[in-house]
TrEMBL record:
Presence of the UniProt keyword Signal in the record: yes
Record's signal peptide: 1-23
Provenance organism: Sulfurimicrobium lacus
Gene3D superfamilies: HP0721 helical bundle
Protein name: DUF1104 domain-containing protein
Gly residues compositional bias, start-end: 80-96
Spans annotated as Disordered: 52-96
Keyword Phosphoprotein in record: no
Highest taxon of source: Bacteria
Keywords: Signal
Length: 96
């Protein structure tokens, strides 16, 4: 009797943890500076899409200078990760 109840609780707990992993992260609670520190390249597809959606939503209310600063910060992060898009596709020795 006790074993069945424990198994139900364990199954429920595992199910809730699984749902949390499958759900995209909510980035709306972060301020823009915190959001800019995140690395989309280290996120799963759902989180990356949620991150992009949040950034697009915020960029609408940013001034042109704030948008440029945000773009520059993202570029700097990409450079720190090996050059971003320029390094994809095989690198050196790929002749044409």
């Amino acid at each position: 009797m006790y074993g069945k109840k424990w198994m139900r609780v364990a199954t429920l707990a595992l199910g809730l943890v699984s749902l949390n992993v499958l759900a995209a992260q909510d980035f709306s609670a972060l301020n823009t500076a915190e959001l800019m520190q995140l690395k989309p390249s280290e996120m799963g597809d759902e989180d990356r899409n949620a991150f992009r959606a949040e950034m697009q939503k915020r960029s609408v209310s940013m001034s042109a200078a704030e948008q440029e600063a945000a773009r520059n910060q993202m570029r700097e992060q990409n450079r720190g990760q090996g050059g971003g898009r320029r390094m994809q596709g095989g690198g050196m020795g790929r002749g044409r």
